[in-house]
Amino acid sequence: MSEDVYYKLAKVLDTLPNGFPTTENGLEIKILKKIFNPEEADLFCDMKLKLETAEKIAERTGRPLQGLEETLQDMAEKGQIFEVRLGGTSLFKMIPWILGIFEYQVDRLDEELATLNEQYAPIYARQFFSKTPQLMQTVSVEETIPNEQEALAYQKVSAIIETGQSFRVVDCVCKKEEGLLGKPCKKSIEVCMAIAPVPGYFEQFSAGRVISKDEAYQLLDRVEEEGMVHLASNVQTGQFYICNCCKCCCGVLRSINELGIPASLVINSHYYAEKDADSCTECGICADERCQVNAIVEDEGEYRFVKEACIGCGLCISTCPNEAIKLVRKDEAELSSPPLNEADWFEKRGQTRGVDFTPYK
User: Fold this and answer.
1) Per-residue model confidence (pLDDT) at position 154
2) Model confidence over 252-268: pLDDT tens digits?
């Protein structure tokens, strides 16, 4: 099988709403060759974004059923596709580059792949963050949301946790990548949380470790203390992860800080931080230690909060010694309601990108 299959795979991935842009030097092809062999790449191109059994895939594509389920399970173990086992039946689907294949390489990441990803990330980010809806939304530190501004369920960490019955924590792929490149993060690395609405769901996965609901809350408390931003899927229902991110490693936050992409295009946020000038002592803790998107700038000895750059995470509030900062809910005209669920997100994203991904639905 010729290497043309990798160009075919790249085209499929770029046709999905999340995208996978081409490069002049073929970086994207080098990445795919690191992750897929030709047979795996070809099989991926025959899959869909909806869950199917091996029998259904064989029937639809004309592929031999013998050995197909084992191949699909091996691909899922390699983080190339997604598998879920329900009642003894395995179901499989394709996944986009982000959020999907890239993150699932966390246990297989080596220095070569990390280097390729680091080179490709700015190219990917400029395409990805040029369109909406955004991939993620900020879930503010809950204690910092004013009582009179009741947050909706999808804006609250506790609501996302309480809908879950299974929890898993894995290493952050962004932090692992930076570590392999000689830039290790000083904060915790085991911080990415997956959530499922059924008991025992994550016992089938080899990556990461299963944790209890209490441990999930403890993890969130710890990362808040370390100064990490809670980011969840930009949907109203069916949220299945909470990423806990810092500015030195997170590809999403680095797109704001290093590439200069406006925060509003990168993250859907519902609040912004505002300081009380009379109470503020200009200690600088909020800017120097807490803000992960450089939204607090020093100006002639005083700290100024830049509303347009703020993602409303609330990290600056919890360590302010004079309680001089508060979160303010954006005006209705400034708010962007998340898509209803993942399928709705795909549809809206596909429309804004102008891609027809009907063959993969």
Assistant:
1) 87
2) 999 999 999 999 999 99
The residues facing 299 across adjacent strands are 302
CA distance 284 to 290: 9
Q: Where residue 206 falls among pLDDT bands split at 50, 70, 90?
A: confident
Domains annotated for the chain, with CATH where assigned, are 4-126 (1.10.10), 134-349 (no CATH)
Mean of the per-residue pLDDT values of the chain: 95
Q: Where are the alpha helices (DSSP H) in the chain?
A: 4-15, 27-35, 38-44, 54-61, 68-77, 111-128, 157-162, 173-180, 213-226, 251-257, 263-266, 285, 315-318, 342-353
CA 270 vs CA 219, 232, 338: distances in Å? 23, 13, 10
Contact 315, 292 (CB under 8 A): yes
pLDDT of residue 1: 63
How far is it, in rounded angstroms, from Cα 303 to Cα 311? 17
Q: What is the pLDDT of residue 249?
A: 95
Cβ count near 301 (within 10 Å): 7
Nearest Cα to Cα of residue 102 among 268, 275, 234, 243 = 243
- Catalogue the long-range contacts made by 245-248 (C-beta closer than 8 Å, 24 or more residues apart): 245/172, 245/174, 245/292, 246/175, 246/185, 246/187, 246/292, 247/292, 247/293, 247/294, 248/178, 248/183, 248/185, 248/186
Q: What's the mean pLDDT in 315-323?
A: 95
Pick 61 or 300 by higher pLDDT.
61
Whether the CB-CB separation of 52 and 43 falls below 8 Å is answered with: no
What single DSSP character describes residue 299? Answer: E
Question: 3-state class of 124 per DSSP?
Answer: helix
Best CA proximity match to 144, nearest among 312, 290, 303, 330? 312
Picking from 233, 264, 198, the residue whose alpha carbon sits closest to that of residue 346 is 233
Candidates 227, 345, 216; CA nearest to 286 is 227
Is pTM beyond 0.85 here?
A: yes
